[in-house]
Write a structure and sequence with these properties.
Layout lengths: L6 E2 L10 H4 L25 H7 L9 E14 L2 E7 L2 H6 L6 E5 L8 E4 L2 E3 L4 E7 L3 H4 L9 E8 L3 E2 L1 H6 L4 E7 L3 H13 L3 E7 L9 H6 L5 E2 L3 E2 L2 E2 L1 H12 L3 E7 L2 H13 L6 E5 L15 E4 L3 E4 L3 E2 L2 H5 L2 E2 L2
Parallel strand pairs: 10-11, 10-15, 11-12, 15-16
Antiparallel strand pairs: 1-19, 2-3, 2-8, 3-7, 4-5, 4-8, 6-7, 9-16, 13-14, 17-18, 17-20
GO molecular function: 2 iron, 2 sulfur cluster binding
């Protein structure tokens, strides 16, 4: 993690400065982190401290809550729910980029909203679609959702993907997309961004644990094809997956690998790249941190790293290698 470059996903946006600045815990601004001198970790072209002073030394207004209309709701499998819903125009523009997600619920109790990545956002008709893996109490509450029901959402949030800078900087290159399970949903905005930047995409999908690849139509609409392969077996990369990665680097000169799936997929891909001395290959991956408030305040997303470093992963944007290397799991 030497020379690590970190960023705050909200820095320079209409939501900055936030409640972390009020508490003296700003991720980037040294003066809003208890220091008496100016030494920003990552200059974004906007002075956070000046914004703090101009706003009366208080946080700016946070994300708004919107009541939207469900257009389609379909239970693909017993634990996989698809929802398409309408959006206000300004919100649809904010949810187009890779890493966009929202908190949503179907009832009045705001304690039960759940973070879900945007799978597809259409700014022409102001709609968005999501895939929900039904696992716990919060997501089970969404099973009763049906067309024309109200859907309460809070957003926009943008830190659903680590390595956004790597995605932005990859132009006219070859990219490898590895996606497994529910990771195919946040993969779609990443693919759209890379495609717009004139990149060639090799998409490998592991449908496990599901019966079908439910993004087939979306990929077809983008004139893209994919190959199915088993990527993980008993928590390790399969020989097939290793061969795909090695060939992509040696034969196709891949510059970026995106991992859409659980952390164990990303962690194993990182280790394999280290083993074959492919450190030059850029990475992006899903942010699978537990989230509750989305503002870095509640502490659900915090992770501890070597040197007693604590990162609020709903806010901190960094390279995946910096997120997984030096991380303490106990």
């Amino acid at each position: 993690m030497k020379g690590e470059k970190i960023d705050c996903i909200d820095s320079g946006t209409k939501f900055c400065p936030c409640h972390l600045a009020e508490a003296g815990e700003c991720i980037l601004c040294s003066q809003l982190h208890g220091e008496c001198f100016c030494d920003c970790l990552n200059w974004k072209g906007v002075c956070i401290y000046q914004g703090w002073i101009a706003n009366g030394e208080k946080a700016k207004e946070g994300r708004k809550t919107y009541t939207c209309n469900i257009l389609e709701a379909e239970l693909y499998e017993k634990d996989l729910l698809y929802i398409k819903f309408s959006l206000p125009e300004d919100l649809s523009l904010d949810l187009m980029n890779p890493g966009s997600y929202i908190f949503l619920r179907t009832d009045e109790n705001f304690y039960f909203d759940v973070p879900i990545s945007i799978m597809d956002c259409n700014i022409d008709d102001n709609t968005a679609s999501i895939l929900i893996e039904v696992r716990g109490i919060k997501t089970k509450r969404l099973l009763n959702a049906k067309a024309n029901d109200p859907l309460v959402i809070r957003g926009p949030y943008w830190n659903g993907i680590f390595g956004l800078k790597n995605i932005k900087n990859t132009v006219n290159s070859n990219c490898l997309i590895l996606a497994r399970g529910i990771g195919v949903a946040p993969m779609i905005p990443v693919i759209k961004a890379l495609q717009k930047q004139n990149n060639n995409l090799n998409i490998i999908i592991d449908r496990a644990p599901y019966k079908e690849v439910y993004v087939d139509d979306l990929l077809s609409s983008l004139n893209l094809t994919y190959t199915e392969a088993n990527l993980l077996e008993t928590g390790k990369l399969t020989d097939k997956c290793k061969t795909i990665i090695r060939d992509s680097i040696e034969k196709d000169n891949v510059n970026l690998i995106h991992c859409g799936g659980a952390d164990i997929l990303t962690f194993n891909v990182m280790n394999f790249l280290d083993n074959i001395k492919a450190d030059a290959v850029s990475l992006s991956c899903c942010n699978n941190s537990k989230m509750c408030c989305g503002e870095g305040v509640c502490g659900s997303c915090t992770a501890r790293f070597a040197g007693h470093v604590v990162k609020r992963l709903c806010k901190v944007q960094s390279d995946p290698r910096n997120i997984f290397e030096g991380r303490r799991f106990i």
